[in-house]
Amino acid sequence: MEASELVKDKDDTLKALGIMLEAWEEGADNGVAPELIAYAALYTALTDLVAAFGEESVSEMAVGLARRVNAGEFTLARTKQ
Question: Do residues 15 and 37 lie in contact, with contact meaning Cβ atoms separated by under 8 Å?
């Protein structure tokens, strides 16, 4: 599903994803490196989550993210060695 289609979705989660993907594409189209967009997105997400749920809750979530990253959940292409 394309970002432009997601933006029109009735599901707010998919709509939010579509908006983020469109912003990501716009940044990339304007020459912003993907890793800089990712850092900005993470910073924005974490500051909003802390404001909504508090530092302790977000810290616990971040620990859970570390386990998920290490387990390969966010790795799109795996290489076998």
Answer: no
Structure token digits, residue 47: 């500051």
Per-residue pLDDT tens over the stretch 20-70: 999 999 999 999 999 999 999 999 999 999 999 999 999 999 999 999 999
What is the C-alpha separation between 45 and 22, in angstroms, rounded?
Answer: 16
* Assigned token pair, 45: 């997400």
From CA 23, how far away is CA 36, in angstroms rounded? 13
Query: Tokens standing for 21?
Result: 């993907």
Q: What is the crossing angle of helices 34-53 and 12-29, to 10°? A: 140
Between the alpha carbon of residue 24 and those of residues 35, 41, 62, 66, the distances in Å are: 11, 9, 22, 23
The CB-side HSE value for 8 (13 A sphere, CA atoms) comes to 4
